[in-house]
Structure prediction request, 248 residues.
Amino acid sequence: MTAAILTDLTKCVGCQACVWACKELNGLPRGDDARALSATTLTVVERHGNVNVRRQCMHCLDPACASVCPVGALHKTPEGPVAYDESKCIGCRYCMVGCPFSIPKYEWDRRVPRVQKCVMCYAELVSRGRQPACTQVCPAGATVFGQREALLTEARHRVASEPQRYIGHIYGEHEAGGTAVLYLSAVPFDQLGFPTTVRKDPYPRLTWNVLSNLPQVVSVAGVGLIGIWWIVRRRQELAATRPPEGER
Ligand code: SF4
Ligand code: SF4
Prediction:
């Protein structure tokens, strides 16, 4: 059982309620430019011709970001969302290199930057049996939450019953080995900014190839000692940026 989101692009009215609900839950600024994914915009509604395209982390079934993370800061939760633990993150940004959908962003302007991406409201909502903030607020039923198998059944039913409305491709059913965020569309996905060269195999089996092409620091034996120093220093810096207990 995997929690999932089905976004039907033929239903999206572009109101951006999902974008603002995401920002509110995550304490992110509303005033910034919300037209592209960034460290302060974790879901976005892009305009491609007449089509509104909501984008977010795909919550891959076998996530490359988690497989390349050397300290386990990103992980696939039992419920399905791919979550992030900033206290473990060492800021190496391998997840940004490994993700086939170019989703994770980095807080370049913070003294101790974190990686930012949609975590499907895991800690606050999904782990407590509730649906994410974005799907709660969609007034058009364009983006809905459920179990992946049920949503795939629903998506196949829509395609079969209205073939004039949909192309016969459920994006995310097979891409990157399957994702927990699925899309339906009337327009081919390559015309909507979706990466269409994404392989059908899970990426983790490829990611060590990615890592092997990264700077040689990865393969040097001394990386272990450097890594330990890096983790300790980063945790000290993170602790220093947190307010004292009584002020939280
Ligand atoms: S889309 Fe990218 S960031 Fe999201 S789970 Fe997949 S690999 Fe990780
Ligand atoms: S809330 Fe629903 S209709 Fe509005 S932009 Fe998001 S997906 Fe589209």
Observations:
- Helices lie at 17-26, 64-68, 94-98, 133-137, 148-161, 204-212, 223-241.
- Residues 27 and 203 are 31 Å apart (CA to CA).
